[in-house]
Amino acid sequence: MELYNSRLRRSLKDPGEFTLTFELVPGRGGRTQEINRIVNLAKDIAADGRFQALSITENAGGQPSLSPETLGTEILAMGSEVIIHLSCKDKNRNQMESLLFGWDRHNLHNLLVIAGDYPKEGYCGFPKPVFDLDTIHVLDMLASMNKKGQLPQDNDTPGEQGPSIPFLKGVVVSPFKLLEAELVMQYYKLHRKVSAGADFVITQLGYDARKFHELLQYMKQNQLNIPFIGNVFIPSLKVVELMHEGKLPGCLVPDSLYEQIQWEARTEDKGKKARLVRAAKLLAVLKGLGYDGAHIGGPALTFTDLDFVLNQAEEMESGWQSLIPDLAFCPPKAFHYYEKDQATGLNTEKEVERPSKKPPWISAYAFSNWVHETAFEPEGVLYDLCKKTCLRLDETRLRGPLSTFEYITKAALFGCLNCGDCTLERLAFLCPQSRCAKYLLNGPCGGSHNGWCEVYPGRKRCVYVLAYNRLKPYGLEKKFKRGFTPPRNWSLNNTSSWVNFYRGLDNFALSEDPTVSCSKK
User: Fold this and answer.
1) Is the pTM of this model over 0.90?
2) By residue range, what is the domain housing residue 382?
């Protein structure tokens, strides 16, 4: 296989080709009947030739499962390309790098970089979630490996310079969010993903043509010039129930669609054909809208099912506009980025008005920002004094009391966990270490629902929703469209972040220019 010119790469670069991928979800175990069914399905898809790649999930739903590279190696031997899901939830940065070297050796270069579902109960209880890196960090690491073949080494452990590694980097975005803050932050994070080196984007699943059109229009208007692929998910009745109940993070089945699927389920085949026809309609609409491809998936599908969907979609393509009313499943109160085009049922080019409340004369954010500008910005009136005091105390017996005083103060105000690598100023003075279940530093995951964290629904708001709402009255919410916050430096744990800041040891020193990432330094 030619590494730099694979079939998937050629398809994504060819504006005249509609890329098709199919998602395989391996379960727990390596020799089960379900794994055998997946392998046989992969053989049929490879022999058919209409799909450019097979996508393999990694511990989907937070459950342990057969590793994607194991199944991917088998499928690669069948003559089909694979896309390996690379999630952040179970591995630290060193383990990721080690795996990537192995995947390169096995020619597994197509990746879908995701934060991943929060880990669920496994052996003897719940595992420790890792999330050492977020998706922006992983993209930056991959960009470095693409250029050099190896990440920069410490001065005392120089490594051999290897050839570049041709990783193709996919990412995910969800236009199917209910709140303004949720949706806009998804789009703003997409800017960061593209800047960090994303090569293509796949949408989260949804069943609303207007929302699919919204993403397409947003990407074009903002010059996010990478291929975009729509998600065509064909659920089973059990999965529909779980999605409607909000038990599969990021997957939205609104009441209108749920009720229709329940009505269809009264038929002899339990509504399966109706679900396949709906998928064919969505596939035809995506192609008509101008998407570069479609990512098809769903539990217990057969090759016969896929063949039916592809053939039906081909017959429907010429009349795709007439199908738009059949794909209008969006909660009535969901936020839209653009005003509706009443003639087509899609969007106009005019953005909806997003009125902002007048900023309060005093707030936690305003006070915290004043302190930061006064003591931690070089132009601040107390900067020199605070820097001199902290550095001098750090060299005396008062080093411990200084660190304790900082920790107690910030714990009371911000829920500080004493990481020593503070990012409060970058996130509207909200701590991602204590307030984000995935410790994300460069934007939200896709799992929030109606503003709630996927891990603590109804109990804890998504920290990026809170940050957006804090900054919007000041007109500062667009800061999330750009920038790069480096990953946490664990060598600074339980030390004074004030001292680390003034000594130039923390994340601010690594990213003085917010447009520059670790791989470019």
Assistant:
1) yes
2) 364-442+483-520
